């Protein structure tokens, strides 16, 4: 990964260009990052993550139903996943 950071900035967005051609956008203030096939896609993904990080989005009332409807997964499918590695809403 190559970095575009200059002058020890602590605000803004930094882009990383991966060897597979994808791009990662990292928010320097929060340290959160998301990737995509293009800079625009990476920024859109990062914007969504930042919104959720700031408390945006809708709460998940039933995690099992969410997994089923959104990802076609059953909670039991994740039984082998260490609890510390699970998303916060499942802990």
TrEMBL record:
InterPro entries, alphabetized: DUF7387 (IPR055811)
Pfam families in alphabetical order: DUF7387
Top-level division of the source organism's lineage: Archaea
The protein's name in its UniProt record: Type II toxin-antitoxin system HicB family antitoxin
Native species: Natrialba swarupiae
Lineage of producing organism: Archaea, Methanobacteriati, Methanobacteriota, Stenosarchaea group, Halobacteria
């Amino acid at each position: 990964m190559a970095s575009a950071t200059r002058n020890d900035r602590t605000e803004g967005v930094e882009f990383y260009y991966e060897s597979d051609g994808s791009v990662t956008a990292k928010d320097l203030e929060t340290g959160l990052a998301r990737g995509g096939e293009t800079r625009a896609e990476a920024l859109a993904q990062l914007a969504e993550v930042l919104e959720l990080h700031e408390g945006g989005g809708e709460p998940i009332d039933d995690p099992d139903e969410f997994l089923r409807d959104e990802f076609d997964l059953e909670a039991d499918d994740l039984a082998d996943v260490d609890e510390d590695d699970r998303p916060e809403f499942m802990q």
